[in-house]
# Entry
Amino acid sequence: MRRLLALTLALLPAAAGSAPPAVTAVKAGRLLDVAHQKVLEDAVIVVEDGRIKEVGSTVPPGAAVIDLGRHFVLPGFIDGHTHVLLQGDATAEDYDAQLLKESLPYRALRATRAMRIALDHGFTTLRDIGNEGGGFADVDLKRAVERGVITGPRLFVATKALAPTGAYGLSGYDWQLTVPKGVEMCDGPDGCRRAVRDQIAHGADWIKVYADRSYYKQPDGQIRSLPNFTVEELTAIVDQAHRTRRKVAAHSMTPSGHQIALAAGVDSIEHGDVFDDATVTAMAQRKVYWCPTLTVTDFVAGPRSTTNPIWSELQAAVKDSFRRAHKAGVPIVLGTDAGGFDWDKINQAEEFRRYVALGMTPWQALATATVNAAAMLGQEGTIGAIVPGARADLVALAEDPLQDITATERVVFVMKDGVVVRQP
Ligand SMILES: [Zn+2]
# Structure
């Protein structure tokens, strides 16, 4: 019986009725070429085998036609900083409850829903930057998407993330209990190298480190933090990752962390709320990417500042840092920290409007989630652009995002790898 069923299933198409025609022509009323800041009118995007074959003005004979003639068409969005295995942690209690009361299978189920929400909002690729006690489940989620088991964004995953002993939750519990940890803890250059090797062996595309914690105000009014790793430890982590062609993302909130992270040679700074001039200069010169995660900062500032007022100061500081970093030419990648806020409460595309409010043009804001993000991921020409050879990841909007950037929060059509996953 079992065997028969398996045979029957094997004969069915992967998803009945959904097999795309060989060639699809997407008629785009206005195609936004983000890389060149140009609008092409009445363009035709020809899609074959999940990729863009050409961008022209005529529909090839026999092609299936998708008519977006009244829409604004863009490359699928990329979020450079998410946690699909997390469902909002405005407070430590919210975080602890997920790690203590939810099994990993249940968390993975919730993650599949988070991924569907992201895709419906136009995010066809996520750099999922640490799974908060989820083992290597993010590698499974990535694989499930690649194999068509679930429908979701393409994932670049960082697996467990790294912090030294004592530098990350869960903490504060009865010492007789063994409670789960939100990261893998490693100590000493050799121990950290071993952890990097193990994560890469299990499928990590990126290595994520927590460079600092415990934010406080100095007597001179400057906000600083406790650096987590020694320079030797963080240098070993970056060296080991780079030897294996992996990049390193560093959670770093103040210059106390930035200094060590940049000295070690990390590839991106996450959050980065407080930038001093030395940090801005170094990041601009060495082209270290920055994911500002303004959406999560606005989400957690209220709840967290009731117990620690530093959070509302960080909220103000990151806005100032943004203006200065943008002006200095620090490469900015849209990163929201979705998962830090509830996926179903806030549309991660809100991040765009925050960038425009702080001085970016709509074109520049759109670039953070397309060309800039693709460059950070080493995927130029493959994602984040509507060019021949790229993955056919498209979003369409009913309104012009160049006039009103919040149009990005009202995606009406999404195609990923040539398959329509949302339509008007
Ligand atoms: Zn995060």
